[in-house]
Amino acid sequence: MNNNKERGEEIRRQIVSDVKQHSADISKHIARIFSITPQAVYSHTQRLEKEGRLKSTGSGKGKKYYLGDLREQKSHFILAEDLTEDGVWRNEYSFVFEGLPENIVDICHYGFTEMVNNVLDHSGGKHVSISAIRDNEKIMFSVIDDGEGIFRKIRRLCNLDDERQALFELSKGKLTTDPDNHTGEGIFFTSRVFDEFEIDSKGVRFRHDDQFEFDVILESEFSENEAGTAVYMLLKRDSSREIQTVFDDYAGPDEFQFDKTVIPVRLAQYENEKLVSRSQAKRLLCRIERFKHVIFDFDEVSAIGQAFADEIFRVYAKNHPDIVLVPVKMEPNVAKMVNRAGSG
């Protein structure tokens, strides 16, 4: 029974894959490939039409088939030198996005190629599995590799304390383990252009959901010995988001470059610890010299210590007068400490 089910799925995948080149003779074409009758193929085309994955015009010998609005593609690749992100998109996945609004295609193309390129250049793995699904309401991607794990690699190469700190640094933007060839902007911007974005990797999971004001760090659904890195992306089909608008949101007022970051301060808290020390502040300040405008988002932070505030808003501000530090969403107790440090 399982063999028949798998064979049926294989036939239907082949129909969807070949229908653009064989719209008028798809039944004969598939029948030749699988050594079955055209009548047997017809039962599969009927099912695909009912599912919305195919549509047809005409009847009898004049019947032609076309891709339907619902589309799906899943592939598994060996990571080799001749595998490229643009080649994978163009040859295997571009059909999934045909007919969609330009802003949707732009976002999907950007996120897809950035995440596949990260696997090719950084994962150190041997394989990658990619999935793209388009239904009536949304487009979903997954890119899963069997490499070292993104947070573990960042921790190792950047000499950080743990994977959680690696994730926190990644959320600021401009973090790369290969500065000669990468800007470190890809994951940051991909997480902002999609409605939902998630990275799950060996013990740590990062999730951005555009419905909420803040990102979250969770425990991974994988054990530390499982898949290297899994990236999931979701975009609603009715999204009006323009990719250039997102880029502009993080550019300086007078320049076309990525020089602004928003730091969710609460992500610097480990479990129930309070933000009171200078070492905690220094962890928060790591690498922000790469930006000209730094927004500290204190949402869900009820209080901070004097030393923590002083390290950021007096010591660091005094030593880096060219960087604009802006605290936002402060509780009264937080604002008191920030104002005291700033006037010191």
SSE order and pairing:
Elements: H1 2-18, H2 26-34, H3 38-51, E1 54-57, E2 64-67, E3 71-78, H4 85-93, H5 102-123, E4 127-134, E5 138-145, H6 150-158, H7 163-172, H8 186-193, E6 196-201, E7 204-209, E8 216-219, E9 229-236, H9 243-249, E10 260-264, H10 278-285, E11 293-297, H11 306-319, E12 324-328, H12 332-342
Parallel strand pairs: 10-11, 11-12
Antiparallel strand pairs: 1-2, 3-4, 4-5, 5-9, 6-7, 6-9, 7-8
Helix pairs in contact: 1-2, 1-3, 2-3, 5-8, 6-7, 10-11, 11-12
Q: Characterize the biggest β-sheet.
A: 7 strands, antiparallel
What is the number of independent domains? 3
DSSP strand count: 12
Order of helices and strands: HHHEEEHHEEHHHEEEEHEHEHEH
Keywords:
seven-stranded antiparallel β-sheet; 12 strands; alpha+beta; 21% strand; single chain; 344 residues; Heat Shock Protein 90; 12 helices; elongated; Arc Repressor Mutant, subunit A; three-stranded parallel β-sheet
Summarize the structure.
This protein has 344 residues and is of the alpha+beta class.
Outline the structure in words.
- The chain has 344 residues and is an alpha+beta fold.
- The chain folds into three domains: 2-67, Winged helix-like DNA-binding domain superfamily/Winged helix DNA-binding domain (Arc Repressor Mutant, subunit A); 71-245, Heat Shock Protein 90; 252-342, no CATH class.
- The chain has helices at 2-18, 26-34, 38-51, 85-93, 102-123, 150-158, 163-172, 186-193, 243-249, 278-285, 306-319, 332-342; strands at residues 54-57, 64-67, 71-78, 127-134, 138-145, 196-201, 204-209, 216-219, 229-236, 260-264, 293-297, 324-328.
- Strands 3-4-5-9-6-7-8 form a seven-stranded antiparallel sheet, covered by helices on one side. A three-stranded parallel sheet has the order 10-11-12, with no helix packed on it. Strands 1-2 form a two-stranded antiparallel sheet.
- Strand 11, helix 11 (306-319) and strand 12 (324-328) form a beta-alpha-beta unit.
- Helix 2 packs across helix 3 (38-51), helix 10 crosses helix 11 and helix 11 (306-319) crosses helix 12 (332-342).
- The mean pLDDT is 85.
